[in-house]
Design brief:
- With 333 residues, the protein is of the alpha/beta class.
- The chain contains 12 helices and 5 strands.
- Strands 1-2-3-4-5 form a 5-stranded mixed beta sheet, with no helix packed on it.
- The longest helix is centred in the middle third of the chain and has 27 residues.
- The radius of gyration is 20 Å and the shape is globular.
- This is CRAL-TRIO domain-containing protein.
């Protein structure tokens, strides 16, 4: 790393050392001992402008304090049937690790319906996965590999992507904005697989709106992407939707796909949250009650992308003679 960049990191750290104590406390939870790596992520997100990175990080820390993010891993989604509903309609999981040790997050973009719970439960679950990744999973794999591992890769499955995705744009924009502002640069690479024509058409108009740094991270693979992904991970780490064309007889296949609530990752996460709630000396919550988090204002890039995608999908809707109104009530905060 060059002298100029090292100087920027040192300057940034001096500024953060001066923040008030509550922000310092939550920052320790956020960086988990990987202080410089965390500072670098925020600097990258603001093109190495120290002043802008400082403002971004301070706002992130205030968001964490104001919304009690440090305690979100002791707030289970109950009853367990509701958590199952969330998992069945917000498709995300870990299928394994790359050969470099990075967690492989699989996301079912096309088949996620977000229609079995309120927006607050989906946001709560998303943040819990982020926090579990950053505070439990990544420190563990870093220790195992003997070096800092602070990012992951994501494989986005576009199977089933339809015009009904229009109703999910608001919620997806909320979640993406939370990630942009509070968990920047946590994804090393995005791999898009099983992309139908509707995705290809939207991607052509969205791609120019992305920052160059983001564009370079996105790789749209042919078909299920198996051949390309096998260059960076073993077969056993491939998401189930990338295994098409394999006989299965020569490979050990997963009995439970990584989206399922019964997958070990989701069982470990849920039990971890439930255990931390119970250690506070309280019984399991009798009532349903989501953990409400303040939704940040979407960044301009996200707003523009959402509008562009919405416009493109409306054109598809009109071309196909579909006039049924979109019900997005559950995707509205």
């Amino acid at each position: 790393m060059g002298i100029v960049l090292e100087h920027a990191i040192d300057e940034f750290q001096e500024l953060i050392d001066k923040v008030e104590e509550p922000l310092k406390t939550t920052f320790k939870n956020a960086h988990q001992g990987y202080l410089r790596e965390t500072l670098i992520r925020f600097l990258k997100a603001r093109d190495w402008n120290v002043t802008k990175a400082h403002t971004m990080l301070v706002e992130c820390l205030r968001w964490r304090v104001d919304n009690q993010i440090d305690s979100i891993l002791s707030k289970p989604i109950v009853p367990s049937e509701l958590y199952r509903d969330v998992r069945d309609s917000q498709l995300i999981g870990i299928s394994g690790y790359t050969r470099e040790g990075l967690p492989v997050f699989a996301i079912g973009v096309g088949l996620s319906t977000f229609d079995k719970a309120s927006v607050h439960y989906y946001v709560q679950s998303h943040i819990q996965i982020n926090e579990y990744r950053d505070r439990v999973l990544l420190p563990s794999v870093s220790k195992k590999n003997g070096r800092p591992i602070t990012t992951c890769v994501k494989v986005l499955d576009m199977t089933g992507l339809k015009l009904s995705a229009l109703s999910q744009i608001k919620l997806v924009t909320i979640i993406s904005t939370i990630d942009d502002l509070n968990y920047p640069e946590k994804t090393n690479t995005y791999y898009v697989v099983n992309a139908p024509y509707i995705f290809s058409a939207c991607w052509k108009v969205v791609k120019p709106l992305l920052q160059e740094r983001t564009r370079k991270k996105v790789h749209v693979l042919s078909g299920c992407g198996k051949d390309e992904l096998l260059k960076i991970m073993d077969y056993t780490s491939l998401p189930h939707f990338c295994r098409r064309g394999s006989s299965g007889s020569s490979h050990q296949t997963q009995s439970v796909d990584c989206f399922s609530v019964d997958h070990p990752f989701h069982q470990q996460l849920y039990n971890y949250v439930k255990h931390h709630y119970e250690t506070q000396g309280q019984a399991e919550p009798a009532k349903q009650g989501s953990f409400h988090v303040g939704f940040p204002e979407p960044v301009a890039e996200r707003v523009e992308m959402a509008k562009t995608i919405e416009s493109k999908l409306h054109k598809f809707e009109n071309c196909n003679g579909l006039s049924k109104p979109v019900d997005d009530r559950k995707a509205s905060p």
